[in-house]
Amino acid sequence: MANQITRAQSPEQLAQLGHFNAEVIINSPGRVNLIGEHTDYNNGFVMPTAIDKTIQFHLKKNGKASHCSVSSLNYDSFFEFDLAVEDHNEAEWTKYIVGVTEEIKKLGHKLEGFDCMMLSNLPMGAGISSSAALECGLARGLSELFNLNLSNLEIVKLSQMAEHNYVGTKCGIMDQFASVMSEENHVIKLDCKSLEYDLLPFAIEPYKLLLLNTNVSHSLSTSEYNVRRQECETGVALLQKWYPEVRSLRDVNLKQLEAHKADFDPVVYNRCSYVIEENERVNKAAKALKAEDLETFGKLMYASHEGLQHKYEVSCKELDFLTEFSKDHEGILGCRMMGGGFGGCTINLIHQDAAEDYIEAAKKAYFKEFNRNLTAFTAMPANGGERLH
Ligand code: GAF
User: Fold this and answer.
1) Segment 33-59, tens digit of pLDDT
2) For 207-378, which CATH superfamily applies?
3) Which CATH number fits domain 4-201: 3.30.230.10, 1.20.140.10, 3.10.20.740, 1.10.3430.10?
4) Ligand 1 mean position to 121 CA, how many Å?
5) Using CA positions, which residue lies closest to atom 1 of ligand 1?
6) Does 40 qualify as catalytic in the annotation?
7) Residues near 166 by Cβ (< 8 Å), separated by ≥ 6?
């Protein structure tokens, strides 16, 4: 099956890395989320895992007080900045870099000049969290390079804050948590309120996880993400009139919400009801996985998509098309949009014998409908970020 990274790690790139003589090398993965979407910032439940697609960071000190350079071999991009200058007015991916160094400084740590080279086989903008991989990988790399002794949880939280404060997405904690805390062959069931988590064994053979990338990334993703978060907070504030103990949608059940339907703006009501139902689905999905009941798991995935499409309204026509298309095919137990929405990938639970034919059929149908290529790749649960050297 074709991996969608076309610019593979060429011998030239590997030679460049060889000459670089890194002091520290870090592998930092992207993630998938099986179920539990837009629940993390509502203190709810999610079920992600890191995957075998990573950004590799090669780092060394450069002997300068505050001058730094970061280059991405895949994208031929080079970025230099000064640790002592606060307002960098960065564009695109460089915001993540400066966000991480600034958040590390806020914790009271001292950084010095460093050079960094990155090599990746993790598609960007596909909804599999290249951003969390970037933030968490750099944070771990700098911690190792300057002996900062950052704990895993500190890496997770400062990376999340880099995204809030320097990128502008008020994201939850799921992506960074998965990129750091995951273990091979397991998925995480995370309680985003207490941050307690179970590692659930993920042995689903003969099924596998197939990601179909729509190759669209609608511009609404950041602005609408923050709007959804705000709508949920509006719902919580209203619910507190009757249930003062409620702090987030996690603390409410459907009956309590339904009892006050008439007092809600219909849009806010739908957002809240989706989140409450999705939390229940994650709990049911965890039980189904433990019981090796993949049929039930797949049905929950479809129900999740339905809620994201109609109640939470973060899907798009390309994701809806692929989810519908999957229903007509044997061997697929479940499919849903994954991540923040408005583009990116669907995640499919598919029988390994059905995958090849299905990918071909989906590519043809998708191209016919949207005049755009679909890309496909499988994902395996993998370890969270680690130092390789
Ligand atoms: C994005 C965010 F970064 C996550 O925190 C999460 O909210 C997700 O969208 C939706 O479940 O990936």
Assistant:
1) 999 999 999 999 999 999 999 999 999
2) GHMP kinase, C-terminal domain (3.30.70.890)
3) 3.30.230.10
4) 21
5) 340
6) no
7) 90, 95, 96, 98, 99, 102
